[in-house]
Structures are given as C-alpha cells and as structure tokens.
Backbone:
C-alpha cells in the first residue's frame, strides 16, 4: 500500500444547477469517502432555487462558488481549473457515491502500477419511481470499443480520471449540448489514453424526473449520439477494422436510435435504419428496444409500417413495446394531460400558471390536453388561445358560498374523471388542487393506463381547511380526507410544492423526500414591468388579489385605524374576498378616509395598478404556513415593489422578505408594522434600496422563464424519458452472446 504521504490527491468535483432537492446527499457522500486525501469543490451554475442555502451548512468542509449559468460542461471546466488533485472524480449533483468508491479505485490503480489514465467501474442504477436498484456491470477483460458503442455502461460518476489526461485532450467541450461524457471519452480513446477496470460498483446513478436531468430535445440527443458513433466507427476502421461483435453492436445502436427518433423525425429515423442495414440485417436477441415481434414486422413489412403498427398497438392497449427493465420507450410525441377547474380564457391565478407551463411544454414538442370547467372564476380574457386541446366539461357554476363551492367542486371532479377516460393514451397526467381531490384522476389513470402521475400542490388539503377552522383536525371527516389525499400522494410519481414550507409540511405527513420537489411560483416581467417609485409625499400600500379566509386581517385593520387621520399614508385594497368585505365595513364604520377599494383587473392592467404603489401588502394567518403560498407576492417583486408580509416567520414569503425584498412581521405585531410605515414615510432612501433588491431577486429567481422552466423540467424529464432507448444497457442475453468471443464475460461469472 502506498504511504499516505505519497498517495495522490483526489478532487471530487460537483456541478450543480437547481439541485436543492439532491445536493446535500451528493456532497455528504463526497465528504464520507474513506479515501483520506480528497478535496470537495462545488460550482453552483446559476441556480435559482435553494441550492445555495443547502450548501451553506457545509461551511469550510467544501470549496464553493456561485457562477452565471453557462451550462454543465462550462461548470465542469471551471471545477477543473479550481482543482488541485492528480485525479478527478466528477459527480452530478443528483447522484451520490458509496463511501469506498474512490478508495477501491485507487487501490486498483496501485495494484496495476499506476498504469491507467481512466479507471472505469460498474455502477448502480436507482429507479426513483420504485426504488429498484439495478447493477450496471462492466465485464473483464474491458473491451472499450464495445462498451463505447453500447453507450450506457460508461458513466461519468463511475469514472476516476487523471487530471493531466483531461487537460491534454482539451477539457470538456462547452458547446456539446448532450452526450458530453461520451464526446470526452472518444477523445480519450483517440489519444490512446489507458483505461483500467475496478470491479467494485460504488457510484449510484439516479434515473428520475429532476430539474438537473432535463431531456428537452431528444432528437438532438439522438443525432449527437449517432454523430459520435459514426466518428468512432471510422476510427475503428482506420485503426483495427471492425470485428463481428462491433458490427452487431453498431447495428443494434442504430436500430434503437432509429426507433427513438421516429416520433420526432421519421425521415431521419428511416435513414438510420438504412445505415444500420447497409451491411446486412442482423437478428438481435435480448434487446428491450428491439423485441422479436418488431424485428419480424420490420423484415416483412418494412421499418415504417412496423413502427406504425407499434404505435397503434401501444395507443390501443396502453402497453409499452419492450421489457419492464427498459423503462418507457416512446413511440409518439409525449401526450400530457393537465387537469384544473379553471383554464384559458378564465383569468384564475392557477389557470394562468398552468397556461404558462402548457405553452412551455408545447414548445418542447409535447402534445397537451387540458380538462377544465365550463364555469369561470374571473372574467374571460380575449388574448390568443394557447396551442393546446381544451376539453371543457359541464358542472355547476363556481360560487363564493361554501355550499355552492362544494357542489361546483364535486360536479367538476365527477365530469373530469369521466372525460379523462376517453382521451386516448396519456404519458403523464398533472393534476392541480382546484378542486381538492383532483389527484384521484391521476391515480386512476396511473392504474388504468400506466400513465406517470404528478400533483402540483397549490393548497394542501385537508390542512388548509383545518387551519381555517372549517373542520376540526381530529374529526372523523378530517382524518378520512387526510387518509384519502395521502393515498393519492403516495401513488404519485412526483409532487411539486410551491415553497419550502409546503414541502416541509408534506414531509411531515410521511412522504418520501425524493418524491417532493420545490418549484416556486412566478410572475411575468413582460406583462408586469417595473417602474420608478411614485413621486410625492404620500406612501401607498396596496393589497392586490383575493383577501380570503386564509389571510390575516386583524393586524392591518388596527394599523389602518392608527393611520386614519394621516394624509400622507394611503391603503388600497384591490380584488375581492370575504375578508376584504370585513375591512370595507370597518372603514365605513369608522369613516376612514385614506382607504380605497378597487375591483379586479386583468394582467395587462395590473402593471399600471402596481406601479402606483410603494409597498405591496401580503398576509397569512398563523397555522396556514405550508398549506398555501400567496402568489401575489411575485407580482409585487416583478413591479420592483417591496413586500410587507404579515404572517408566520416559518413560511416561504418570510424567507423571501428576509432576502432584502421587504419586511416580515408576525400576526399581531401592530406596533412593529406602525413603526415600519412611519420610518418609510420619511426615509425614501430605504424604500428605494429595498425596491431595487426586490427587483434584483425577482429577475434572479422568480421571472416567468425561470419559474416555468422549473416546473417543465421536472415534467419533461418524466415525459421524454428516452434515456434507456438512447443509452441502452446490454441485456444479460446479449452479454452471454458476446462472451463467447472472449471479449466479455457473462455477468453471472463476476
């Protein structure tokens, strides 16, 4: 064993982008490595979520910088420049290492006389949907050409690379939008770098829906894979010629890619199939993407007809062509079903958010169907309809009364459930929480159609109802509702919480932390533009939107009465809601002259209203934290207006205010709010400074493109789950065939 003083330093390098959900485990696994000579470096590539907050707790145990978002390979090159180690362990932020990963590879290196530049290892593929862990093996003796063509068994996290080798081949290629590790490996191979094999699998690759593993352009990924495959084939022909094993693997890779490309470009798919068959057809056994029935149809009827038969078969039965271990094999553009009571042209806030995501998914190549109600929450808009299929179902009109609202919810849920059974194949269904219980549709379609199922939580039921006193938390009804809702959540493949406080509440209910992702709401800077603060000596405080039962009003009511004779302080309540009527009655009773009430306006006119205020008022009752997150705060930030948040300190908006975007006061702290407003009356410099910070934070975290991307990336990684088709693993049967040549061994012998 090499003395510790002579052992090489290993740099563990972690690029992270919007990895709040995973980054702690990745860093902890790096720090837990039993190999003693190591450094851990993290580059936050412009994250807009809580990644930075998650990393602060590690203190000086790691080196960390936050950079502008330039992409994964740029972050890897920056990590390379920051590193001091002789050996490099790259680790994506959503994966992790077992404690002896590096130690076992260094031991193998020393046993072979330091003769390698890249040490390869098998790894563990963890399916986050079901918790299944599948070993992905590498066989001895290591046949690098076969492994490269087979694509899926070389993975960056399982490698240990000599720093000088990475530098000599030109570092990571920063404009390589996909297949980055294989492009680098190809340069290693061409430069005749030495590959070694350590048999121990101690790196874990997560296969899941994650913002950090986006597959936004599957066709481009396929094209890049094939370009690298063609280049590697030319290299092999020039160097050694192609063996029968390599020809068979090349045929398989091109046929698999042809099938993957079919939904996106049928001409290109046909070209790949022709290239695969140029030197003769081969019969492949044990390949999930090329089952025997497809190969026979291709031989008898041609590739196009065989693929169309597969499309029809899948659309009719909901069955996926391929084996269970292959994952989802897409044979058409991803079909996404979005379900919410309100959608375009209605102007309900949840409908507006869903519309933004629908447009993003359409732009990513998805086919979108929306089920919504004929009824309305707001007045109809007259802008251009989103390019989606909208199915409006009957139901009782929405009512502001409890009984009317309940009847509206129930009738919509019934009709939406029935309609969802007659829209054909659905790859992913996304349900919101208006009305409560809508997740029943997702659970039903998951069971009947094997659809992926996501819940986008806007309100947590029955928690919000118990917090408002509508039902007692220990009543039989509350317990029954909680059990039903939790059952649906457990069946979901993923849950989107709109704030850390909501995520924490869901985790308190016993949900798997890996299932719950945070994607905060947003506003649109193209619609709500920022303007300078209004001139003059009058301080205007605006409440905009619904002022309902969940919003605290006692504190601001007492503040209003305190300032009722102040001519330089004005309060405006715009929108509606039961609590607004209470404040209006209070002002009429006490004849308060400096409070005005305005109706709702559409998004186009909202910017003008926000521009006329100095401070945006947002409130939340104690006990409601985590059950909902008032979205009106993001509109104030978009307008460059600081928020005055009267609500619990453990909530998401308290954290936002704490970033310098405004002020937070606990409900009941009347004196604190009065003191603040008196200070703002005279200190416009403070108001200006906080306004600037509010706008800065908005553009960093909460503008529409960022917010929509957070949600869409979670869904897209599920929708376009072509990873297995694009990066297939050699099946045990194929390994056995290849082992007959002596290049690989049957995995059963390892």
Residues:
């Amino acid at each position: 064993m090499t003395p510790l003083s002579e052992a090489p330093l290993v740099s563990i390098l972690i690029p992270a982008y919007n990895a709040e959900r995973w980054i702690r485990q990745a860093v902890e696994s790096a720090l837990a490595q039993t190999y003693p000579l190591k450094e851990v470096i993290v580059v936050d590539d412009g994250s807009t979520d809580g990644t930075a907050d998650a990393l602060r707790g590690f203190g000086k145990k790691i080196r960390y910088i936050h950079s502008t978002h330039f992409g994964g390979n740029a972050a890897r090159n920056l990590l390379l420049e920051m590193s001091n180690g002789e050996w490099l362990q790259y680790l994506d932020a959503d994966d992790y290492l077992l404690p002896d990963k590096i130690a076992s590879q260094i031991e193998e290196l020393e046993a072979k006389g330091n003769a390698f530049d890249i040490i390869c290892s098998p790894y563990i593929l963890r399916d986050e949907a079901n918790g299944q862990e599948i070993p992905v093996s590498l066989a001895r003796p290591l046949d690098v050409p076969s492994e490269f063509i087979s694509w899926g068994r070389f993975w960056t996290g399982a490698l240990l690379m000599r720093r000088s080798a990475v530098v000599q081949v030109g570092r990571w290629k920063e404009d390589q939008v996909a297949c980055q590790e294989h492009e680098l490996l190809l340069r290693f191979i061409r430069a005749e770098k030495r590959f070694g094999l350590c048999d121990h699998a101690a790196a874990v690759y997560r296969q899941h829906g994650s913002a950090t593993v986006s597959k936004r352009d599957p066709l481009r990924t396929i094209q890049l894979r094939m370009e690298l495959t063609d280049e590697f084939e030319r290299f092999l022909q020039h160097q050694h010629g192609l063996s029968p094993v390599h020809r068979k693997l090349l045929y398989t890779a091109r046929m698999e890619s042809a099938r993957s490309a079919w939904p996106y470009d049928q001409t290109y798919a046909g070209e790949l199939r022709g290239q695969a068959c140029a030197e003769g057809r081969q019969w492949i056994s044990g390949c999930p993407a090329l089952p025997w029935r497809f190969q026979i149809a291709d031989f008898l009827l041609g590739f196009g007809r065989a693929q169309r038969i597969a499309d029809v078969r899948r659309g009719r039965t909901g069955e996926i062509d391929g084996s269970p271990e292959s994952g989802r094999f897409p044979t058409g553009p991803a079909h996404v079903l979005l379900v919410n009571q309100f959608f375009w042209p209605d102007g309900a806030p949840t409908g507006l958010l869903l519309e933004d995501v629908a447009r993003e998914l359409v732009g990513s190549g998805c086919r979108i169907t929306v089920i919504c109600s004929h009824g309305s929450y707001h007045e109809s808009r007259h802008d251009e309809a989103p390019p989606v299929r909208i199915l409006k179902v009957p139901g009782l009109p929405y009512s502001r009364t409890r009984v009317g609202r309940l009847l509206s919810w129930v009738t919509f849920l019934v009709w939406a459930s029935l309609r969802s059974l007659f829209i054909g194949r659905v790859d992913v269904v996304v349900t919101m929480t208006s009305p409560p219980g809508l997740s029943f549709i997702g659970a039903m379609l998951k069971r009947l159609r094997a659809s992926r199922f996501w819940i986008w939580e806007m309100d947590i039921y029955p928690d919000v109802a118990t917090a408002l006193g509508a039902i007692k938390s220990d009543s039989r009804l509350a317990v029954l509702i909680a059990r039903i809702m939790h059952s649906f959540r457990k069946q979901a493949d993923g849950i989107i919480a709109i704030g850390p406080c909501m995520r924490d509440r869901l985790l308190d209910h016993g949900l798997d932390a890996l299932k719950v992702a945070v994607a905060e709401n947003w506003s649109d800077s193209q619609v709500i533009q920022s303007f300078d603060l209004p001139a003059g000596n009058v301080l205007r405080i605006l409440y905009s939107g619904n002022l309902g039962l969940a919003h605290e009003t006692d504190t601001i009511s007492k503040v209003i009465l305190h300032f009722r004779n102040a001519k330089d302080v004005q309060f405006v309540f715009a929108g509606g809601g039961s609590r607004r009527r209470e404040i209006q009655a209070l002002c009429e009773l006490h004849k308060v002259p400096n409070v005005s009430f305005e109706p709702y306006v559409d998004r186009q006119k909202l910017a003008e209203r926000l521009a006329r205020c100095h401070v945006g008022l947002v409130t939340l009752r104690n006990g409601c934290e985590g059950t909902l997150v008032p979205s009106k705060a993001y509109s104030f930030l978009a307008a460059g207006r600081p928020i005055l948040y009267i609500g619990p300190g453990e909530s998401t908006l308290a954290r936002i205010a704490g970033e310098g975007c405004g002020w937070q006061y606990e409900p009941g702290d009347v004196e604190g709010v009065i003191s603040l407003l008196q200070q703002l009356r005279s200190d416009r410099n403070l108001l200006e400074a906080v306004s600037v910070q509010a706008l800065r934070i908005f553009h960093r975290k909460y503008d529409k493109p960022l917010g929509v991307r957070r949600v869409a990336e979670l869904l897209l990684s599920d929708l376009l789950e072509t990873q297995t088709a694009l990066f297939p693993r050699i099946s045990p049967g194929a390994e056995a065939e290849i082992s007959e040549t002596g290049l690989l061994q049957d995995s059963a012998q390892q």
About this structure: The first strand starts at residue 10 and ends at 16. Residues 539-702 form a domain with the Rossmann fold fold (CATH 3.40.50.2000).
